[in-house]
Write a structure and sequence with these properties.
The protein is an all-alpha fold. The protein is about 70% helix and about 0% strand.
Length: about 150
């Protein structure tokens, strides 16, 4: 198991100790790298060897490890197209039969809905016709009486 070394921080401090602009920056970078290595229970030499060994191993390895456990899928236009499978006569007949059955069921539902609607309209019209018949009788009686 690798020691708990803060690799990024250690590499930054080590880079400052090597490429600092002034002597003060270089000494501060070396002191910081020593503190980071000590916090992991290592010496500066051990931590440097560990970080440089990891960097060398990283450079030698082929591709970097994938960030996702799932393989990358190509874009849809880059994938190979599946061969076209022609539809058979049996499939066409089955589709037509299913379509006809659906249309018959829809027509039956619509017929049932319309019968219910017509029955409701007939009930309303009966009341309207009875009221009109009553008005007609009253009008006829009023016409027959002498004025």
């Amino acid at each position: 198991m690798l020691p708990m070394l803060d690799h990024d921080r250690f590499e930054k401090c080590l880079a400052l100790s090597r490429r600092g602009a002034t002597e003060g920056e270089r000494s501060a970078g070396l002191a910081a790298a020593t503190r980071v290595a000590a916090s992991a229970g290592m010496t500066l030499v051990e931590a440097t060897a560990l970080v440089e060994g990891i960097a060398l191993a990283r450079d030698r390895s082929a591709p970097p490890p994938p960030s996702s456990p799932y393989p990358r899928q190509p874009f849809p236009w880059a994938r190979e197209k599946e061969p076209v499978k022609p539809i058979t006569v049996e499939e066409i007949l089955a589709q037509k039969a299913a379509d006809l059955a659906w249309k018959k069921a829809a027509a039956a539902r619509e017929e049932k809905r319309m019968r219910k609607l017509y029955a409701e309209q007939d009930r309303e019209h009966i009341a309207i016709r009875e009221a009109q018949a009553q008005r007609d009788r009253e009008w006829a009686e009023a016409r027959q009486q002498p004025a």
